[in-house]
Amino acid sequence: MMSVHRRSVLAGAVGLMAAPLGARAQAAKPRLTAISQWSAGSDGAAITALGKKFEERGGVWQHSPVPGFTTDMMNKLRAQIISGDPPACSQLKGPEIAAWSKIAPTVNLDATVAAAGYEKVVAPDLARLHKPGGKWSALPLQVYRTNTLFLSKRAMDKAKADKIPTTWAQFNELGEKMKAAGVPYPVANGGARADDGQKFEAVLAGISPSVYRKAIMELDDKALASPEVRAAFAQLRKIADWMDPNTAAQHFSVFLPRFVAGEMGMLIQGGWAQGVLLNGGFKLDDFIIAPGPTDNGKPVFVLNADAFIFWQRKEADLQAGQKLMAELVMMPEIQTMYSQITGSIPVRTDVNLSGAGWSAGQVEAARTLKEAVAINQSVLSLAHNMAQENGITAAMIDVLTEFVKNKAITPDQAVKRLGEAVASAR
Amino acid sequence: MRRAPELLVIWVPLLLAAAHIVVFTAWTVWISFTASTLMPVSEFVGLRNYTSVLATRNWKIAFDNLFIFGGGFVAFTMLTGLLLAILIDQRIRGENVLRSIFLYPMAVSFVVTGVVWSWLLNPGMGVQKLVNDLGWAGFRFDWIVDREMAIWTIVLAGVWQAAGFAMALLLAGLRSVEPDLIKAAQIDGAGPLRMYTRVILPTLWPIMVAVLVILLQMAITTFDLVRALTGGGPGIATQLPALVVYDFMFQRGQIGRGAAAAVLMLLTLLGVLVPHALFKYARRRRAANA
Lengths: 426, 290
Hints:
The complex is a heterodimer of chains A (about 425) and B (about 290). With about 425 residues, chain A is α/β, with parallel strands linked by helices. Chain A is about 50% helix and about 15% strand.
């Protein structure tokens, strides 16, 4: 017994001595600890592919997905930061990047970003979100348009319509036409909170992108009470009247078969719905993808972007891993690979989308982004936490989702409530 | 010396438990007065968190719902439980089997209850569709998507879950009624209805108060049932205070406001528990004086 005991102690001691040696031997090898919510489907596939590229360049890829909402991932991130062990890199988006970089030190990526000449190929609003305090500490990975209009081919046929609506008036005309032709619900809806918010932002940005910028992104009190916001609520009421009331907090993917079958006519969703439709076994000619209606006739892009933020670590291998990861994320070929898997569009506005592997919808969205940025009509999504921090976003969405569900609330009351919600959440 | 182990056995766990409750409660109260958002910080802001929580529609709706849900849940659970207990108390055959069946929902998690009821209540696939398919095409049972009625679906599922529990406690109470009392009442010619209203139920009321308090604190802390059944919707029509606390703390990154909402919930709970404690104290005094 005694000898066994002594031998195990000896083995343990040797192991302890060997451990730092092993670590030192690996120090040259870049390593990355990362957390994100992407665990399954096309999101999971895309980040796995990114990990493979990281390993091909000699890195050690340690990704721990936290499935669920972004906020679930944030709770893990918070716990890791409190315990003094943040991941080298984590998913985070929008204004949360600035908020979180106040509670833990982040990596200054300025030199790496400058070396890649990245800043001039990123939309300015987007760049601003990723450099809190003027320093790059996070990098956007992919972009989605949230004001994308999907039209059901069968519902269009039923209504004998072939014109894609480009203004909200035409949208309403098509809705009436569909209703009259026996399409039970001209607008598709699942009843989830974010979906209600997304309909509102598509409407307001379509009515006036400049008011959207002032009211939603800058929380200007006068803009929040403006006639444009009131008009957006009135349009949202029209949309709500065309939705199936028999739904309770369903994910939008649940009703896609009914949409394709022509039971629901128009779907306002992010570009990701294309990937979900194709994944669900539907064909590209089952539906039409178009930009959301805009009343001023010029392209408007409501922008949603996923990003990585980099947390300061002392370990040399993690620092090397962060540099490698940052370089990878900025590369056009990596962004191409990623977007082709998820159905998004690349962050870089200089990526050529004429090659194979891009859908017509993606090509159109990328072109719209470029044009909208040029005329300052690209705005940040409210429903997807790009325009405001979570607290204010949630307070505003409360008002929007209640307005959609409660037909007794008038647009005037809604405008007042939206202002109150912003004031109390600030 | 003989007393030392006994003291250890009693006091160590007691102090640990008390420390957990008191320290964390005190910490939450402190945080509710600070400007904490993503992380706890110590900047004092006075009552700002409280005023802003009390001003949100979410909290107002949640608090109104607490009274509808709390009242409905407690009243219907008590009534159903009492009825079941009285029926089972008739010395019927298969009593053990029935008792197990009625008590069984208590063994199911609220999340499971919520999910199952959300399917049953969904007008597109649950009870309404079944009755429609049987031929009654005009039948409507769409409470879960109706803003006004949705809170009652939570009452319904909650009563289904807790009625068996109330039944078990009340049945034990019924069984402990002095047989002599019942015999005396029978000799005096009391019918079954009179027997219950005048003789048996009055002796049962201490147990009823206990059941009431347990059910009330269940109602106030309800979270998982709503989360699984309606997710607080349609819109924010079925918010409850516990959901609001969770929302502020873990979804909106506003820990200070979440803590303030939690303290408001604690005060509501105290509103139930303090009268109960006073009532028990008064009874004991009366018993001691008699």
